[in-house]
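Incident log, structure service

09:12 report received: a user says their structure output differs between two submissions of the same chain.
09:20 pulled the input from the user's history:
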Amino acid sequence: GNGAVRWSCSDKQKELILKLVTENELDRDSVEEIALDRFGVGVKQLNKLQASGLIAELLELCGKSDKRQVNGNRRREAKR
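09:34 re-ran on a clean worker, output below:
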């Protein structure tokens, strides 16, 4: 195969998760950890219900990370 794993959640959810990861410079491994921790399966195996739970979790995480203690943000600003 070409490595394209079929996601179990809806395409919209998949896009939103990927968008949150990209926009907030989240670590994909961390997101995978959250999924495994909460639901016992990896991100791509989440069903629609679980995926919406993960999205809520990520939104909350991103909301908190606006306070700038999160590592990734400082690096980006330093480049300007």
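09:41 both user submissions now match this output. Likely a transient worker issue. Closing.
09:42 reviewer note: The chain has one domain: 1-61. Helices lie at 11-23, 28-39, 48-65, 71-79.
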